[in-house]
Amino acid sequence: MDAAGANDLAGARDTAEPALPDGSGHVGPRVRALREERGLSLSALARRASVGKATLSGLEAGTRNPTLDTLHSVAAALGLPLTAIVSGVPGSTSPTGGRIRGAAVHMELLKVFDDGPVTYELFRMRIPAGAAQTSPAHHVGVTEHVTVFAGTLQFGPPNASREVTAGGYGEWSADVPHGYAAVGPEDVEASLVIRYPRTRACPAPEPDVADRRS
């Protein structure tokens, strides 16, 4: 990878563009239910996800349409796949028709596979030529797998990115910050599989929640 290519990911960042084109009202009740199942206060989940308390409150109330970064961060803090909060029901597509977008990446959810201790999400992915974005870390053990059909994709952690061209395959550990960029003159068209190992236990309640229950 040359220095110019490395900068595609190093300088990429998410924007405030909403992730769910048709709104996120269906997501809030699901996030709240999952948070309460884990005995987490709103403040505790916001800290774990490194998002603002007002942002998380607005998401749960359905008054804010979050960015893809926020959705990934909340899902990771809960130890869950993205579709567990976007779709609500594992194995189903969301009311948005499965369409999710980030600063550069446009994705369509095609299928969710549950295979015992592992969940797989299959997306169709498009990145316009010259566009790039980074994504926060998923929970421990998550990996991503891409097959490129058109264009040249740069992917992986910004300090260890790789490129793959049409017809090629790549994979990377996604439990660290990572990114995607379409380098060259063509849009990237690809399939993306995200592999999530099932977490063995829910996170322990924060002390303030445990104290209130005693």
Order of strands across the widest beta sheet? 1-2-3-10-5-8
What fraction of residues sit in β-strands? 25-35%
Q: Compute the gyration radius: what is it?
A: 17 Å
| Largest sheet report | 6 strands, antiparallel
What this model shows, in words?
The structure is a single chain. The protein has 214 residues and is α+β, with helices and mostly antiparallel strands. 28% of the residues lie in helices and 30% in strands. It has seven helices and ten strands. The strands form two sheets. It has a six-stranded antiparallel beta sheet, with no helix packed on it. A four-stranded antiparallel beta sheet has the order 4-9-6-7. A hairpin with a 5-residue loop joins strand 6 (152-156) and strand 7. The radius of gyration is 17 Å and the shape is globular.
Concise overview:
By secondary structure, this protein is of the alpha+beta class. It has helices at residues 3-10, 27-37, 42-49, 53-61, 68-78, 82-86, 207-213; strands at residues 99-101, 106-115, 118-127, 132-135, 143-150, 152-156, 162-165, 169-173, 178-183, 188-197. It contains seven helices and ten strands.
Defining traits:
about 210 residues, six-stranded antiparallel beta sheet, four-stranded antiparallel beta sheet, 10 strands, about 30% helix, disordered N terminus, disordered C terminus
Annotate the secondary structure layout.
Blueprint: H1 3-10, H2 27-37, H3 42-49, H4 53-61, H5 68-78, H6 82-86, E1 99-101, E2 106-115, E3 118-127, E4 132-135, E5 143-150, E6 152-156, E7 162-165, E8 169-173, E9 178-183, E10 188-197, H7 207-213
Antiparallel strand pairs: 1-2, 2-3, 3-10, 4-9, 5-8, 5-10, 6-7, 6-9
Helix pairs in contact: 2-4, 3-4, 3-5
